[in-house]
Amino acid sequence: MKTICVYSGSNPGLHPEYQRNARLLGKILVENKIELIYGGSSAGLMGEISREVLKNNGKVTGVIPRGLFSGESVHKSVTRLIEVKDMHERKKVMSDLSDGFIALPGGLGTYEELFEVLSWAQLGIHKKPIGLLNVLNYFNPLITMLNTTCTEGFMNQSSLKIISISDNPLSLIEKMKNYTPPIMKTKWREFS
Fold it and tell me: What Pfam family is a match, any one (predicted)?
């Protein structure tokens, strides 16, 4: 893995552990010679991880829509800033540039980006590793929801294997480096 796209909050969250783990992940990316691909903001956890990567002489590519967010501060010191026309193009460019994806705690945008790459993996559009950095058990309700989705017959158990989960950034990177895409059962139960 040479590049990882990190989805995270443009807010810092209420607990300092969120920020600390964003910075730790940034440091670990640099130690592993992995370039950060992210949404281009200097705010929240997005700003924390990008500043840490840059502080440790790593590479950061920010991808941000032109003029879309007047209140969001663009991180002007990134290694490369790519301006795109809209959110759809932003997500496509970030995906195309990335060898894997990690979600940190965040809001609706983080969930939306995460679920898109999960859906694409389930459909076989990509076979890149996807990780959840489960700081303070933030993603436990989401993990429970995904398990419920399986037990209620809306998703196969094999789909859960496309997600690597850890509360430790180094452990998560190691899991993602060793990721082997699971053999996916047919998505549609009626035809299996």
Answer: Lysine_decarbox
